[in-house]
Design goal:
four-stranded parallel sheet, transit peptide, single chain, alpha/beta, about 35% helix, disordered N terminus, eight-stranded mixed sheet
Length: about 550
């Protein structure tokens, strides 16, 4: 280490180093204790101060006499020692946390993330076998299929947020299991440690507060980030739709623009800009949000904002076909229905995003008051900087058992993981059902190896894992507004299967998602919100 080299250099300057080197050749003649740093099992260092102790018996027995070569450390060396101990103390404070489990303790599973994959894994983990630590910048799971409904008030925000403590109650009740509101910044696979940084909000005396957690098994399910394709201005001016706070910001902006447009002195052109809602991306999220907006405009804006009802409209911009994974007939139905509902379709590619307009690749300028970006997801910055195998598309590379090759006891699943090219498997789409089924597969595997004493670090070698993960697509659904939806039950894009569109599909869509909501509490919330909206309309209060 650098500190050791500095100490040696100071020893040489004080004349001690030469004597030390001479006596290296006479190590059988006597034994001494050096002043160089020694490593303890806890990873810290201490300097041995008892340098004066010598085995004088060895000297006298061999008839060797001499002056002890070192009695007192030099002032420079003492300063280095003091500074080193201070730095080590700062490092211990900086990376306080959970140390490695001891013999006799339950193995510790660390889970990064609270998305679909992580929560399905946490829900099924046998806490009689494992202690579990979950680390995530949010303390809840988002039921993403219904998130678009919260943007316009069809559902309340709490209806789509499931607290992590209700998914795995050991995180709230077990003294050896924990949830940490933090982001993982790095992973040391050799030491079996993850390094984290708390969410900064000026609430702690030292910001950002950093800590480490040792693991026996690590599950990376940190999800993905919205793809911006490096387009200038997207992150600064567009809204994404992946988190509850995203939906809250969209709702506040939408209602603010409606109220501002009614103020006196606003020009006709400015009213049109304020009330122009632009959606980028024709996938299920973009289409469902467009459908919710058209419902909101038809049923609520026309009743509560009569002065500006003729100015508000929705434009959906897509480079190719909307709902490209759906059957052709369903895509055509969605286009026809949304067009009839007032949604305008534009085929184009965004070149730049400005505060009040977007510029397409053909030079067309599109003014907007609300811009929602929904063009899919890609690997996060955290995933990109990890020194782990990479699958096509930049995700963490895994094998058929969700293991990360070349490192021990590390698994990855969900949107942040993809099959390595050598497995011969395609990278699965970033869908909730993919992540959920991977989480179910992996937790069953963990419970199996845990019962065979394979839960501890480096202890699963030799335990048969059984069959690898196989994904079978269960179909796709999307709501297009006005009590209409699409249901595509084909197992692949080119396969054959049942395809439905219309009111019956809408009933199937609502029933399916109501049963998929994790808790009975949130199922109750969703059902009550739907009923309230149907009878009384959407709440248009702007809070915050």
């Amino acid at each position: 280490m650098a500190l050791a080299r500095i100490a040696r250099s100071n020893l040489r300057r004080s004349g001690v180093g030469n004597a030390y080197q001479k006596d290296m050749f006479n190590e059988r003649s006597h034994t001494t204790k050096s002043s160089l740093p020694s490593s303890h099992v806890d990873g810290t260092f201490s300097y041995i101060s008892k340098i004066k102790e010598h085995n004088s018996m060895n000297f006298s027995m061999r008839g060797i006499s001499g002056t002890p070569y070192y009695r007192t450390p030099s002032s420079n060396t003492q300063r280095v020692v003091e500074e080193s101990e201070s730095e080590l103390e700062d490092d211990r404070q900086r990376y306080a946390g959970l140390e490695a489990t001891k013999p006799g303790e339950k193995p510790r599973v660390v889970v990064l993330g609270t998305g679909w994959a992580a929560c399905r894994f946490l829900k099924g983990l046998d806490t009689r076998i494992y202690n579990v630590v979950c680390i995530s910048p949010r303390n809840h799971m988002v039921f993403t299929p219904l998130l678009a409904s919260t943007c316009v008030g069809t559902l309340e925000f709490r209806s789509v947020a499931e607290p992590i403590g209700s998914i795995q109650d050991a995180l709230s009740k077990d003294s050896n299991s924990h949830f940490f509101l933090a982001s993982c910044t790095n992973i040391d696979t050799n030491k079996h440690e993850v390094y984290c940084e708390t969410i900064t909000n000026d609430g702690l005396s030292r910001e950002p507060y950093q800590f480490k957690v040792a693991y026996d098994k690590l599950v990376i399910a940190s999800g993905a980030e919205p793809s911006t394709f490096g387009i200038k201005g997207v992150k600064e001016h567009a809204f994404f739709l992946r988190e509850v706070n995203h939906a809250q910001e969209i709702r506040k902006r939408l209602l603010l623009n409606l109220m501002l447009s009614e103020n006196p002195g606003i020009s006709e052109e400015e009213k049109k800009r304020l009330l122009h809602c632009v959606v980028i991306g024709g996938g299920p999220t973009g289409v469902e949000f467009s459908g919710e907006l058209s419902d909101f405009i038809t049923k609520d804006v026309r009743e509560h904002y009569t002065h500006v009802k003729d100015y508000i409209h929705v434009t959906l911009i897509e480079a190719n076909e909307i709902l490209s994974s759906f059957d052709v007939s369903l895509r055509q139905y969605a286009m026809k229905h949304l067009t009839k509902s007032g949604v305008r379709f534009v085929r184009g590619v965004v070149k730049e995003v400005h505060p009040q307009k977007i510029v397409l690749s053909d030079g067309t300028e599109v003014p907007y008051g609300l811009l929602v970006w929904s063009t899919g997801v890609g690997p996060s910055e955290f995933v990109k900087k990890l020194n782990l195998p990479v699958s096509p598309g930049g995700r963490i590379g895994v094998d058929g058992w969700m293991r990360v090759p070349s490192v021990e006891d590390v698994f990855a699943l969900g949107d942040c993981a993809g099959f390595l090219e050598q497995t011969g498997r395609p990278v699965l789409p970033a869908l909730a059902q993919v992540a959920e089924r991977q989480g179910k597969f992996l937790v069953e595997l963990f419970n199996k190896i845990g019962k065979q004493d394979g839960g501890k670090a480096l202890s699963a070698n030799g335990i048969p894992f059984g069959d690898s993960f196989v994904y079978k697509h269960l179909g796709s659904m999307a709501s297009v507004g006005a009590y209409k939806a699409l249901v595509d039950l084909r197992q692949s894009k080119d396969g054959k299967g049942l395809s439905l569109a219309g009111f019956l599909s809408w009933l199937v869509w609502r029933s399916a998602y109501l049963t998929r909501v994790l808790s009975w509490r949130n199922r109750f919330y969703v059902a009550v919100n739907w009923g309230t909206t149907f009878v009384f309309g959407r709440d248009n209060s702007r809070i915050g």
